[in-house]
Amino acid sequence: MTEGLLRHPFLRRAPLLLLVAAGVLLWRSSLFPQPRTLLWELPEVVDVTRAEVQLWQGPKLVARAEWPDHPQGPLRQQLQLRAGRYRALTFLELPGGTEEHHAQEVLLGAEETLRLPLRAR
Known about the structure:
Elements: H1 2-6, H2 9-27, E1 34-41, E2 50-57, E3 60-67, E4 75-81, E5 84-93, E6 99-108, E7 113-117
Parallel strand pairs: 1-7
Antiparallel strand pairs: 1-4, 2-3, 2-5, 5-6
């Protein structure tokens, strides 16, 4: 009877199918970095001539992006990140050479796209 069950094509492939399914679930889990898009929103009332964003996790710099020459619209940053807490440091250069520095906490969950202000609120 056991030999008859193992001859069925589906049952012979079942271990491989289970391994593939487990691999897909692990791959999309929070154990591994996931593709994320951070959309940094420019302040509406101020003309920004240059913007820089640094993303830190503890003492480690995870990502850095710079947008020179009068950036427009939301600034897109595509990264591979795990869920967790990050600290974002933003540096804005305004007309006349004045600069603004802001810090904010970024909490990443399961979302793939996160909208964030360049100025801390």
